């Protein structure tokens, strides 16, 4: 088949797949242009609901109602209310998630909390060696401040690393570089079999695939909201503490927002029941309510459908890349097996930094990850099959 | 003098004082209505610059430029850039303040950092007993996690409490209930004389009076930005680390944003030089850039002038209250001496909660603090003398 015929065939297939896509209508709920935006795993696109909501929060709730909005506009309860909105996306019943602070701060709360829940005699924290760096840095601090030792491990060798000293294990559900998905159910089981607590970082899975926190008995989890949840730049992160652990969850950041009676202004600390115990200080309302508006896109959307589309998109993209890009120019480091693939494709490529610059100049936005990775994130809510085909075609032209 | 003549005289004086007020023109830079807003020490009013800026951040920077804005819209450097904007308001040279996280989280960073800077053999943290509760709760956690003992002390008895075991002292510059201003220079000196580090909470002074962090050799400081700095509900807090301590500042929250080379994604942690070391995770851009716009109000404004007006306002309000309110109905718990007064007046009053509700219904917004305090905050940028007179008059009517 000629190159032109090959392209025509893929373009035609893309059009058919887009026409059959039950999620395709969601694209119009985002502000998008003619760029192929494959960086939603770094910063999700702007949902059309958000600007109007933010304007209302600023002009009316802050500007006109001012201090009254803490009660009357629901500011005070936003962290747990928005947590409950995220809950179904990660397979959690209500009352277990609060939104607030950065992912890093939540990793600290979760890991220190996990070590304290693990109890006496357990003095080791395991963290995946390939993790997004902040998790490792914060885990080192949590270990130092709880008298634990930190051991980086390859998640594939976790079972041999687990032992009677293990207090907690921090794992990323998807590796931010390779896009590899780890087996949360079996790793959580192995951690529990060793008597330790499982802390999962969901930054690269929440909103991209079913997580099943409750179903799989995860102990604590954290995640950001600015990737597949489209909450906006630096929007607040979240903390999940499983319901039956909440009474014993002992936060290292017991700010007044986590007090049982915050406005009693008592000098003695008494933690609130439930997920509220994970709150710290005054929530940043502008960012938080922008996120709340962004989450409305999810009404009536099934995460299973999102996952099915995500796999179809990354399959199709890999197929186009294999067909279009000359042999040997790129190598996928993202697993081919569906069970091991997140919602991104990472291609190893010589001179990846410069290549990504050219791709962006040519209307395909992914990102470069040190030292040699081209990273393409597929957000099923707004990326279509024609986007995937075009991205592969532009990549081939850029490398050609 | 008849009651009516008395009111007329105060109204006339208020008009004269407002006419002579060099800061009066700033009022039009805020969104205000005919309410007397004396709750700017809880949530500052909306600066007129903010809505348009936020709209631009949402629609153009996020919606159109998306991920490029981290560089091209200056998102990445916002924490230190906005820190430098706050610096002159608290008497700090550039390069010592970063904005981000909540006050509670910054108290944790500052106190743990201070204990580590104090070095071996010092294992006690002192905290003012009357402090805003979150400072005490977080100080208890910092003490627990650094092997220190926490001792609440009355700031008036600080010098007898200081000793060779004291590592750090956390003090509020102004007491949130009484409005009492503590003597930062002399208390800092006493702390230093004992070989300990001084950590100041500036929530109730930044933007209301000169602080002089550098001049008085304060070691670390934190503060919120939603009171006298008008950054918006839950806008990010800040951390000051004095320049000569930065190289040894050892943060308990070493997130990737505080790394010397964050995008190297190195598995080993190497702290950034300077104030950046106080950063943690990804900054919440919407709230942060709203704050940046809010701070533009301060261009060309002298904090000394703000302080002079603040004292004149609270003096005048107290004078009106004394004249209007029947003897014995309220008692000021705010010190009469200027050197001991912040920018609020706290009146003890029977049934204060219900009284404040009626005041608010009658167009005078202050707040109630448990158990018996009516709190009136005076933000010199937008509160005038006529407001002070009217507030006292409505208070007298409400109690009458």
From TrEMBL, chains A, B:
Listed GO MF terms: kynureninase activity; pyridoxal phosphate binding
GO biological process, one term: quinolinate biosynthetic process
Chain positions recorded as pyridoxal 5'-phosphate binding sites: 103-104, 132-135, 201, 204, 226, 256, 282
GO CC field: cytoplasm
Pathway: Amino-acid degradation; L-kynurenine degradation; L-alanine and anthranilate from L-kynurenine: step 1/1; Cofactor biosynthesis; NAD(+) biosynthesis; quinolinate from L-kynurenine: step 2/3
Residue list for modification N6-(pyridoxal phosphate)lysine: 227
Family annotation (InterPro entries): Kynureninase, PyrdxlP-dep_Trfase, PyrdxlP-dep_Trfase_major, PyrdxlP-dep_Trfase_small
Pfam families found in the cross-reference section: KYNU_C (PF22580)
Catalytic function, reaction form: 3-hydroxy-L-kynurenine + H2O = 3-hydroxyanthranilate + L-alanine + H(+); L-kynurenine + H2O = anthranilate + L-alanine + H(+)
Catalytic activity, EC: 3.7.1.3
Keyword line: Hydrolase, Pyridine nucleotide biosynthesis, Pyridoxal phosphate
Cofactor(s) listed in the protein's UniProt record: pyridoxal 5'-phosphate
Homology family: Belongs to the kynureninase family.
Function: Catalyzes the cleavage of L-kynurenine (L-Kyn) and L-3-hydroxykynurenine (L-3OHKyn) into anthranilic acid (AA) and 3-hydroxyanthranilic acid (3-OHAA), respectively.
Subunit structure: Homodimer.
Name assigned to this protein: Kynureninase
Organism of origin: Streptomyces triticiradicis
Gene field: kynU
């Amino acid at each position: 088949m000629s190159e032109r015929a090959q392209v025509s065939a893929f373009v035609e297939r893309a059009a058919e797949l887009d026409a059959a896509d039950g999620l395709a209508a969601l694209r119009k709920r985002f502000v998008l242009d003619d760029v192929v935006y494959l960086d939603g795993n770094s910063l999700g696109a702007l949902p059309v609901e958000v600007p109007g909501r933010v304007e209302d929060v600023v002009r009316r709730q802050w500007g006109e109602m001012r201090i009254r909005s803490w009660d009357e506009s629901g500011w005070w309860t936003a962290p747990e209310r928005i947590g409950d909105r995220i809950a179904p996306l990660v397979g959690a019943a209500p009352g277990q998630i609060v939104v607030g602070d950065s992912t890093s701060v939540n990793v600290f709360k979760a890991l220190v909390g996990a070590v304290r829940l693990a109890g006496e005699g357990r003095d080791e924290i395991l963290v995946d060696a390939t993790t997004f760096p902040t998790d490792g840095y914060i885990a080192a601090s949590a270990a130092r401040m709880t008298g634990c030792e930190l051991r980086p491990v390859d998640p594939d060798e976790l079972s041999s690393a687990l032992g009677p000293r293990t207090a907690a294990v921090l794992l990323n559900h998807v590796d931010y570089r390779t896009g590899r998905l780890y087996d949360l159910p079996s790793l959580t089981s192995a951690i529990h079999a060793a008597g330790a607590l499982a802390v999962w970082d969901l930054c690269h899975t929440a909103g991209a695939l079913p997580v099943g926190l409750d179903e799989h008995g995860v102990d604590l989890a954290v995640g950001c909201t600015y990737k597949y949840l489209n909450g906006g730049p630096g929007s607040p992160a979240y903390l999940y503490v499983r319901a039956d652990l909440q009474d014993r969850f002992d936060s290292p950041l017991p700010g007044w927002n986590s007090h049982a009676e915050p406005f009693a202004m008592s000098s003695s600390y008494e933690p609130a029941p439930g997920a509220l115990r994970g709150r710290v200080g005054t929530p940043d309302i502008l960012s938080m309510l922008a996120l709340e508006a962004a989450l409305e896109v999810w009404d009536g959307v099934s995460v299973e459908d999102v996952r099915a589309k995500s796999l179809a998109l990354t399959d199709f993209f890999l197929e186009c890349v294999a067909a279009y890009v000359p042999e040997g120019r790129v190598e996928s480091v993202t697993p081919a097996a569906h069970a091991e693939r997140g919602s991104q494709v990472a291609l190893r490529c010589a001179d990846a930094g410069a290549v990504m610059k050219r791709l962006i100049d040519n209307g395909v936005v992914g990102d470069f990850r040190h030292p040699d990775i081209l990273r393409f994130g597929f957000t099923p809510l707004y990326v279509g099959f024609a986007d995937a085909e075009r991205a592969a075609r532009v990549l081939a032209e850029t490398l050609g």
